[in-house]
Amino acid sequence: MESGSFEKDDDIALARDLKRRYDDVRAEVAKVIHGQESVVELVLLTVLVGGNSLIVGVPGLAKTLLIHTLAQVLDLSFSRIQFTPDLMPSDITGTDLVQEDPETGRRELVFLPGPVFANIVLADEINRTPPKTQSALLEAMQEHRVTIQGKTYDLEEPFFVFATQNPIELEGTYPLPEAQLDRFMFEIVMNYLPAGDELDVVRATTATQDFDLQHTMSGEQIRA
Length: 224
Fold this sequence. Notes:
Blueprint: H1 3-30, H2 37-48, E1 53-56, H3 63-73, E2 78-82, H4 89-93, E3 94-100, E4 107-113, E5 120-124, H5 131-143, E6 145-148, E7 151-154, E8 160-165, H6 178-181, E9 186-189, H7 195-206, H8 219-223
Parallel strand pairs: 1-8, 1-9, 2-5, 5-8
Antiparallel strand pairs: 3-4, 6-7
């Protein structure tokens, strides 16, 4: 058998294994998130190709729950940042603090990492904060690192950002420029569920149910 045949067989086996893991992740997420199949699919594709996505939808559609559940299934660290008009870049990236050594009395600068230091970051209502603060996150998305006081800190890999926007409330918002929107792989529109799926959500959220989520894929496998 020629070497090309072996390579083809390896590619087929790899594709089948990826499809199996993809289906396993979707099945675990479906334990918590009812319906929204197309949204879940695009969110998973974002992770598999190493991108970032913007989720557009009104409050109350389980956007945070979806991304948090995905982080649990993939066994990745999760951080949620609520974007507000008074949010500062250092509230995202972190800052240097002066600490005193109790033994020597010497003071030194110690870096305190911000919430961007997580595998999956949810930037909630990203358009509610000024462009300067938006840029702090978008730079981290592009470079996978942040620079504080001239020092550069690498972010933990794999690293993904999911940002959300409310399409209805526009007062007091700062729309993302086209150049910044280009940094998102997908703009995922999340709508209300059909009546049948809404009933499933009501049953699930009104019952005392503890979801036993399984880790079906690791960060190392995603990077590979």
